[in-house]
Design brief:
By secondary structure, the protein is α/β, with parallel strands linked by helices. It is built from 23 helices and 28 strands. It is globular. The two termini are 51 Å apart. The mean pLDDT is 94.
């Protein structure tokens, strides 16, 4: 019997070779009908014998192209049309959108092979791509994902590229960025004037693209800093083996000590300088091509200034054709750091780079394919049990949604936190989280924040009816939300962390939340950050928390952790601590110490905090590891780097003092640390004991919480869990006690995942 069926396929099905796949499949099976893109996904009508239609539907799922992600597929039988053959129709336009855009995809092996083939017309072409690879999210301004809706609309196809683009059996059929040296984007080279915002290009105007790449390689080998326009924005590149060049980049960029990311030629190059497990290898080679934090092997050939005082490198493999070309020669490693001044968003346009980066870069490697959405490199780390932990979710991951189970009729925009900001939209059961935006206290970042809201909402066709925001009244994201003419829902920061990790795992039931971070506005108006909560997205109860301590000087205490160490000792040990020979006490002079203790005791500009992140900072300073820092969390990171990894002991006196419904005491912990310092115990061992003790303290608190609530699930969220040593210790301790431990898998556990939690909490508020 001949039948005709209409299929509506939703998910990542545009720009990933799905239409040519369906065309080939239907043609092979002798079916008639058509396929087209629409704002709501892909529409297919297929006509033929009933058994073949059934087989077609099955193969549609089982044989789809690798980048396809089918989320929904509905079908209905419709009247026969009796037309000949199967065709691909022109895409439908419209206002309501229910489809998805693919993230940017690393260049595929087929394209690389063509780019390296002297006989191919795209030999050494820096913008080679096909349906299976290339830029997506960063070049699109609306859907459906067609060339006219991307920055490639400025490049009319030449006859050969047009033939590929229109042939359903070609690998480049409807590959929207399809191009070649005849009709596509091109590179150019300019020399910086050294800070005036002007550049000089006359010297390079006659060079071919191959000659330009060779000239850039030559300049990098000579120690120059080159601003390279990439997929999601500019990178600042230097030879990672040239310490003088790396140090010059630090000075010009204003980035004193924070490690730089490194682009390595291949896996063999990574193995030369880092240890690499199977899970880490998979992360490095993944098509998303994130920066992966990998432990140094000790066989170091990179410049010491690349990652000073750190046991890890942030390494990534090339993901654009231009990356491969730059490393095709004597260069094996390039520092590739975001093209910005510290704390600003990355530059994306050529003119923006000329103005903002001319004081940093010596040369500019430009191209003329516009970047419509800036997108930093994502950062990941392989954590406990070989699970991938996201530290920054951006290029390669965005705009894939997170699914939260039950559909919601509401359209919600979550405005995120102040630091590591992301925003998020809720549509049905899908939460679309933006790329990394950054810290909103920078004017350019706040402008980017507003752009992301406008673009993502427009692209997804979502008009929010509600806004979710942090409770902190001074956050710019909160102020922006309250300034809109929409109902606003305030969400406590650590409740959002708890809801985020549950939503990340598609769980709705309650859990004990051990939420550990640096800063969050508490419901009582103080700074939280070391909290034992019980609840879910519907609500929470604060069961216990780290005993609050003062931050003398407010934000200055974060930059100078010795202040925190001083405050902790004064609070928990009293005046006697001044007679103890501790290295960090040499940092302030006697008068400065007296003044600081005075303001701390009076509370003047010395807010209370229960922050676990600040406790890590204070103990790092107490051990003399990092009394003063140059970037966020450096003290805690330095202490993690120093731990004796095989040390299993802890301070039982500190664990036995735990309570429920009140502050977790710190005096025993601090007394034991100081005692070990006085005894001359190695600081690496003390650092490990501190980590181990904290893991046992929070496990003890979880046991007390379990007795009261009956919950056996523990959810871990907050920036402190980026510390892999601590994360592994607390997970092992909790599992030893029979807890089910839930951690983040799809979004960062730091504030980059807060917007997901805000969505989950706000949706429950609206239902109530």
């Amino acid at each position: 019997m001949i039948i005709r069926k209409k299929f509506r396929v939703n998910g990542i099905v545009q720009g990933v070779g799905f239409r040519p796949f369906i065309f080939s499949l239907a043609s092979e099976m002798g079916l008639s009908g058509f396929i087209l893109n629409s704002p709501s996904g892909v529409v297919i009508e297929a006509e033929g014998p009933e058994d073949l239609i059934s087989g077609f539907q099955e193969r549609l799922h089982s044989e789809a192209p690798p980048l396809t992600r089918i989320l929904k597929c509905s079908s209905e039988e419709i009247p026969l049309k009796n037309e000949p053959g199967f065709i691909i129709l022109k895409s439908e336009g419209g206002h309501e959108s229910d489809t998805f855009i693919s993230p940017d995809v690393t260049v595929c092996k087929n394209c690389l092979s063509e780019m390296r083939d002297p006989g191919d017309r795209r030999y050494r072409y820096p913008f080679i791509n096909c349906t299976n690879c290339g830029p997506r999210f960063s070049i699109v301004h609306s859907i459906p994902y067609d060339r006219v809706n991307t920055s490639m609309k400025n490049f009319p196809l030449c006859p050969e590229c047009r033939s590929e683009y229109e042939s359903p059996l070609d690998r480049r059929f409807h590959a929207q960025p399809n191009a070649c040296p005849v009709c596509g984007p091109s590179v150019s080279l300019e020399k910086s004037s050294g800070g005036s915002g002007k550049t000089y290009k006359e010297e390079f105007s006659s060079l071919s693209s191959r000659e330009i790449v060779a000239r850039v390689q030559e300049q990098l080998l000579n120690g120059s800093i080159v601003a390279v326009r990439g997929i999601g924005g500019f990178h600042l590149a230097v030879d990672a083996m040239n310490n003088e060049a790396v140090q010059r980049l630090r000075e010009r960029k204003g980035r004193e000590e924070k490690p730089f990311a490194v682009l390595a030629r291949d896996v063999e190059s990574i193995r030369r300088i880092c240890t690499l497990s199977e899970a880490e290898l998979a992360a490095v080679e993944n098509w998303q091509r994130p920066i992966v934090l990998l432990k140094k092997s000790g066989k170091d050939c990179l410049a010491p200034s690349v990652a000073p005082e750190n046991a890890y490198y942030g390494l990534m493999l090339p993901y654009s054709p231009l990356h491969y070309l730059l490393l095709d020669g004597p260069l094996r490693y390039l520092v590739m750091t975001s093209g910005n001044c510290t704390d600003e968003p990355i530059a994306i346009s050529n003119q923006e780079a000329r103005v903002r980066l001319s004081g940093i870069a010596d040369y500019f490697l430009f191209h003329n394919r516009e970047i419509l959405q800036r997108c930093d490199d994502s950062i990941v780390r392989v954590a406990d049990k070989n699970k991938l932990s996201l530290l920054r979710r951006s290029r390669g991951f965005v705009p894939n949604p997170v699914f939260i189970g039950k559909k919601s009729p509401e359209r919600i925009l979550a405005c995120g936190p102040e630091l590591k900001n992301t925003i998020a939209f809720l549509r049905d059961d899908q939460v679309f989280i933006s790329q990394h935006i950054g810290d909103l206290d920078n004017p350019e970042a706040f402008k980017f924040f507003k752009h992301c809201i406008s673009h993502l909402g427009k692209t997804l066709g979502i008009q929010p009816a509600f806004l979710a925001h942090d409770l902190h009244p001074e956050y710019l994201s909160t102020k922006w939300a309250l300034g809109q003419n929409l109902p606003c829902l305030g969400v406590q920061h650590h409740h959002a962390h708890l809801a985020s990790v549950l939503a990340d795992n598609n769980l709705t039931g309650p859990a004990i939340g051990i939420i550990l971070d640096g800063t969050g506005y508490g419901a009582d108006g103080t700074i939280w950050g070391g909290e034992i909560l019980a609840g879910d997205a519907s609500g929470y109860e604060r069961l216990s928390w780290l005993k609050p301590f003062r931050l003398p000087g407010g934000t200055m205490a974060i930059k100078q952790p010795w202040r925190i160490a001083l405050s902790l000792l004064d609070q928990e040990l009293g005046e006697d601590f001044r007679g103890i020979p501790l290295d960090f006490l040499s940092v302030p002079d006697e008068g400065q110490m007296d003044n600081l203790l005075k303001i701390s005791r009076s509370g003047l500009n010395s807010p209370w905090t229960s922050s676990c992140g600040r406790l890590f900072d204070g103990v790092s300073a107490l051990l003399g590891i990092k009394p003063v820092i140059a970037y966020e969390a450096q003290a805690a990171i330095a202490m993690e780097m120093s731990v004796a990894e095989d040390e299993k002991s802890f301070y039982p006196e500190a664990v036995n003092s735990n309570v429920l419904r009140g502050p977790i005491q710190l005096s025993a912990l601090l007394r034991m640390i100081v005692g070990d310092l006085v005894k001359g115990i190695d600081k690496c061992i003390i650092a490990a004991r501190f980590h181990n003790t904290l893991a046992e303290m929070f496990t003890s608190s979880a046991l007390l919480a379990q007795k009261e609530t009956g919950f056996r699930r523990v959810a871990l969220s907050g920036g402190v869990y980026q510390n892999v040593f601590f994360s592994r210790r607390i997970t092992a301790a909790l599992e030893r006690e029979g807890f089910e431990v839930i951690t983040h898998t799809q979004v960062p556990g730091n504030d980059g995942g807060i917007s997901l939690g805000q969505i989950a909490v706000a949706e429950k508020m609206i239902r109530r």
